[in-house]
Write a structure and sequence with these properties.
Layout lengths: L1 E12 L5 E7 L3 E7 L2 H4 L9 E9 L2 E9 L8 H17 L7 H14 L5 H18 L20 E5 L2 E5 L6 E2 H8 L5 H18 L6 H13 L1
Parallel strand pairs: 3-5
Antiparallel strand pairs: 1-2, 1-4, 2-3, 4-5, 6-7, 6-8
């Protein structure tokens, strides 16, 4: 039996009232568990951005949710913060290995959700997302060095760099690359709007590689909403 703090990352229907839950847990990382009758018994807590206290039972290498309880205040996200939270949930779902405890990332996720529930400027929102993306990429094995190229050359502030699967490499065409000064500034947590704009492009390229080109539903939903409002 496992008892741990958790957040619901994803759910999919199994039967009429049963669902498979993907839980991000403090003690065991990402766990998928069947929840028999969950839509009847625990519908009120089977929502994203609600801190949970869960009890899981393992039978024949399959986890079953035995108890789900509220473990703190529910966080109400709206607008861009809501899409950002759903986006981060998708990243966890696709990139985080199962049953590998990542306590630091779990705490970062909790802080992220709490922060997203507050009024945020666009710059503050972008800062939160870039830092979480970077931490997740590094923990899932897709991070790259921002201080050196794969052949050991130091990243120079005045130069521009491209990305390949093994890291950064020097390029001549500024339009296609990332300025070394911005990469180094991000590494040192000097997050100006210009640095954040560069790192948004950079993270998107890293994440596309990590996801194998998979499209994220949260991005498509946001794009659809923005095009409808135009």
């Amino acid at each position: 039996m496992i008892t741990t703090e958790a957040w619901l990352i994803h759910q999919r229907p199994l039967r009429e009232t049963s669902v498979e839950l993907t839980l991000f847990t403090e003690a065991y990382g990402l766990i998928r568990a069947q929840c028999r009758g969950g839509l009847r018994k625990w519908a009120s807590v089977l929502q994203p951005f609600i801190p949970l206290w869960v009890t899981l039972i393992e039978k024949r290498q399959v986890f079953f949710a035995n108890q789900l309880e509220l473990n703190g205040p529910c966080y109400s996200l709206s607008g861009l913060s809501l899409f950002s939270g759903l986006y981060c949930n998708e990243l966890l779902y696709y990139l985080l290995p199962q049953q590998e405890a990542e306590i630091g990332l779990f705490q970062s996720y909790q802080t992220l959700i709490k922060t997203l529930s507050l009024p945020l400027s666009q710059e503050a929102l972008e800062t939160q997302l870039r830092l979480f993306e970077w931490e997740l990429l590094n923990l899932s094995g897709f991070g790259v060095s921002l201080s050196h190229t794969p052949d050991g050359m130091t990243i120079m502030p005045e130069q521009y760099y491209g990305f390949k699967s093994d890291g950064l490499y020097l390029i001549k065409h500024q339009v296609q690359g990332y300025q070394g000064a911005h990469l180094l500034a991000f590494l040192n947590h000097e997050l100006s709007p210009l640095v954040l704009a560069t790192m948004k492009r950079f993270m998107r390229q890293l994440l596309s590689h990590a996801l194998g080109g998979r499209e994220l539903h949260s991005r498509m939903l946001l794009a659809g909403l923005q095009s409808r409002d135009c």
